[in-house]
Amino acid sequence: MVKIKLPGGIERKYKDKVTVRNVANDISTKNRGSAIAGKLNSTLVDLDYAIETDTKLDLVMDNSEEGLEILRHSTAHVMAQAVTRLYPDVKLGIGPSIKDGFYYDFDLGRTLTQEDLEKIEEEMKRIIGADEPFKRSEEPREDAIKRMEKLNQRYKVELIKGLQDQTVSFYTQGDFIDLCKGPHVSSTKKIGAFKLLSVAGAYWRGKETNPMLQRIYGTVFTSKKELDKHLKLLEEIKKRDHRKIGVALDLYSFQDNAGAGLVFWHPKGGVIRNIIETFWREEHYKRGYDLIYSPHIAKIDLWKKSGHLDFYKESMFSPIDVEGQEYILRPMNCPFAILMYKTKIRSYRDLPLRWGELGTVYRYERSGVLHGLLRVRGFTQDDSHIFCRPDQLKDEIVGVIDLAQYMLESFGFKEYEIELAVRGMGEEEKYTGDSEKWVLAEEALRSALEEKELDFVRMEGEAKFYGPAIDIKIKDALGRGWQGPTIQVDFNLPERFDVNYIDSDGLQHKVVMVHRTVLGAMERFLGCLIEHYAGDFPLWLAPTQVRILPITDKHNDYGIRIKNKLSEMGIRSDCDLRNAKIGYKIREGTLEKIPYLLIIGDKEIEEETVSVRSRKKGNEGSVPLSQFIERVEKTVKDKA
RNA sequence: GCUGCUGUGGCUCAGGGGUAGAGCACGUCCUUGGUAAGGACGAGGUCAUGGGUUCAAAUCCCAUCAGCAGCUCCA
User: Fold this and answer.
1) Are A372 and A243 in contact (CB under 8 A)?
2) Which superfamily, per CATH, for A2-61?
3) Segments of chain A with pLDDT less than 50
4) Which residues pair with A509 in a beta bridge?
5) A561-578 burial by CB neighbour count: b if 16+ within 10 A, else e?
6) Which nucleotides of strand B lie within 7 A of protein CB?
7) Per-residue flag: A366 CB under 7 A of strand B
8) What distance in Å separates the CA atoms of residue A245 and residue A587, rounded to the nearest whole number?
9) Whole-number Å distance between alpha carbons of A139 and A501
10) Of A149, A174, A431, A519, which is the most buried if we count CB atoms within 10 A?
11) DSSP conformation letters of A484-524
């Protein structure tokens, strides 16, 4: 007798062992889709898996996240089969399912082209049409190694040798066998609508010193409709790309003649950045910060002392010779704040000192990692260094979290992920300072997060070289997370630079430093912001808030008068005086994503009004200018 | 940095061993038009840069620079 507990308190009894498929057939799953695999006490198994003992069983449906994962994985196998048929000498790497799709790595001794992908797709369709069942088999490790050696699959041999288990499993479909834990769909026919998307190089096992394999990316869904929906989404995401919008809206550029990763902010991008920076400064003064400025370059000895030369060298530009002295372009601002702190003796009464700085730094990033505004070589951190006593540390961290949340909220970012970045095990050489201090620092960060009741993930090996950090990730159009705000606790640089204060006991004590940003870097933040709003900036950030569109040139004077009035009120506006029809001017203003277009003609001049066309609602009819100005002022104030 | 792809007027892109094309944008003129493209004419490019092959290179080859997709890195 086998007792099987199903979700919803259902229990079924079978006389003998029974396959997952049988159980699935016995219960109605019609309204949930079709079963693709089973889950026994959280272990995924094939439909053909025979259940022999009492257990809990969940059915995995083809339209569930887990079901899709299995489907993607199976499609990767089919792709490998197709590639093996077309290129018999291929050496197979790995082929997992990933978010939204799958990939498989191949060593072909040559590179693949778009045409190759089409051929592979066709072969895959043939395999799917042949309705080949996926069959699971198991064999002893040693036999498996021999089998793969015989097939001349060196990467697979390496994989098996890395496994601990004495038995390894394979999956076979048709003429193709692959090392795999499973589970898989029952047959190739179950694979719905797929598409191969791209091919790129990828190092074997992600190691730079290993050979580079050809990685083919693809995606698959249960139906063509869903696939098309996904492909459309990819298109939409592309349109949102800040690199496209940045050019279209004339916000910024990169210049070949100047160098990669160096941003030129055009006037319109400059306006946005300026508004953000003004807002940032005001908010900091409100919260008890002082703002400072420091140089962009300093003697190499400073960077030796700070530890940057030992721990951060790879990200720094080479030294510059100045009259026989070596200088370094700063990759961080912290040593400068420390030098400034040390210009006098500080009392415990002076602390905390919160010093903010929009500090431009330069980091050497390898050419291949540069990415629009999100990864650049010169950028401005909205930095701050807080010098405090140990007893003030937690409150300071909480204060920074508050500020970071307020900032992100103000810019409409409702979703972000929080990580607690700590040292990695066994990589002590990457970090400076003694362990106790690291424990203290992590403790302070963690307790602040707990006090704020924020969810976070602990990330090992992600700390800065001088201390652990809270890292807040904001997302780009492709869903990739980019580090924005960061809060780092540092007991180490105060040690290195001997940064003290006199406590009430009259003795010197080491200060604790908090390094933090609440936006991250202006460049990256703007990049994320562009994608977040898809270029439709809210009124308070829009480079041009209002455009006046005279219907004919005899209305131009009135248009200019309105423009001047708006300018007096601090509203950013322009007036389209071109000899063009109104529909044309409206189209251009719309494409430029200007929040308000004011159309003026005979009627408006006579009534002293403006006809409002808003980006959100379209034609809203005529209102007196004063009423429109009030509306704009209120919307700006509300950051709506 | 690595693998692959790409680089043609401000933008999007076609072409391709014999001395450059389209649409949009821009300028002038006609038109004075009421809520997403009126018309005509015109100007604008050493085809990324530097070498090489060739009678001849924007086109083929090499290098460099830059961009794109990944990998690695960074955080």
Assistant:
1) yes
2) Beta-grasp domain (3.10.20.30)
3) none
4) A501
5) ebbeebeeeebbbbbbbe
6) 1-5, 7, 11-12, 26-27, 29-38, 48, 65-75
7) yes
8) 17
9) 68
10) A519
11) EEEEEEESHHHHHHT-EEE-TTSSEEE-EEEEEEEEEEHHH
Per the listing, tokens 């006037």 go with: A267
The spacing between the Cα labelled CA in A287 and the C1' in B17, in angstroms, equals: 69
The residue written with tokens 């950090």 in the block is A469
> Does A19 contact strand B, using a CB cutoff of 7 Å?
no
Distance CA A123, CA A198 (A): 17
Angle at A571 between CA A568 and CA A572, to 5 degrees: 115
CA distance linking residue A49 with residue A138, whole number of Å: 13
Q: Which residue is nearest to nucleotide B5 (CA to C1')?
A: A113
Assigned fold of A261-533: BirA Bifunctional Protein; domain 2 (3.30.930)
Q: Where are the extended beta strands (E) located within A152-192?
A: 167-173, 176-179
Q: Which of residues 237-256 of A touch strand B (CB under 7 A)?
A: 241, 243, 247, 254, 256
| Å between CA of A202 and C1' of B54 | 39
Q: Which CATH number fits domain A546-637: 3.40.50.800, 3.40.50.720, 1.20.1050.10, 2.30.30.40?
A: 3.40.50.800
Per-residue pLDDT, A116: 81
* In chain A, where the domains are located: 2-61, 66-237, 261-533, 546-637
Specify burial of residue A135 (Cβ count, 10 A radius: 0-12, 13-18, 19+).
middle
Per-residue pLDDT, A32: 58
Tell me whether 0.90 is exceeded by the ipTM.
yes
pLDDT > 70 in chain A, percent: 98
Which strand ranges, in their side-by-side order, compose the sheet holding A378-388? A290-291, A353-362, A378-388, A512-521, A481-490, A469-475, A417-422, A457-460
Q: What ranges in A138-241 are assigned the alpha helix state H?
A: 141-150, 154-161, 224-240
User: 3-class SS at A317?
Assistant: coil
How many angstroms separate the Cα of A10 from the Cα of each of A60, A173, A592? Answer: 16, 34, 59
Query: For residues A374 and A476, is the Cβ–Cβ distance under 8 A?
Result: yes
Three-state DSSP at A388 gives strand
Q: Which of A27, A30, A19 is nearest to A63 (CA)?
A: A30
- Write out the DSSP string of A83-150: HHHH-TT-EE----EETTEEEEEEE-SS---HHHHHHHHHHHHHHHHTTPBPEEEEEEHHHHHHHHHH
Half-sphere exposure of A468 (CA within 13 A, CB side): 25
Specify the pLDDT at position A276. 96
Nucleotide nearest to A553 (CA to C1'): B32
A375 Cβ nearer than 7 Å to chain B strand: yes
Given a contact cutoff of 8 angstroms between Cβ atoms, the answer to whether A231 and A195 are in contact is: yes
What is the tens place of the pLDDT at every residue in A52-106?
777 777 777 777 888 888 889 999 999 999 999 988 888 999 988 888 889 999 9
Q: Is the CB of A573 under 7 A from strand B?
A: no
CA of A114 to C1' of B47 (A): 25
CATH class name, domain A66-237: alpha beta
On whether the CB atoms of residues A421 and A462 are closer than 8 A, the answer is yes
Q: Per CA to C1' distance, which residue is closest to B48?
A: A256
Residue type, A35: A
Considering all CA atoms of chain A, what is the largest pairwise distance in Å, rounded to the nearest integer? Answer: 93
User: Per-residue pLDDT tens for A172-205?
Assistant: 888 888 898 878 888 888 888 898 888 888 889 8
Kind of pairing, strands A573-575 and A546-550?
A: parallel
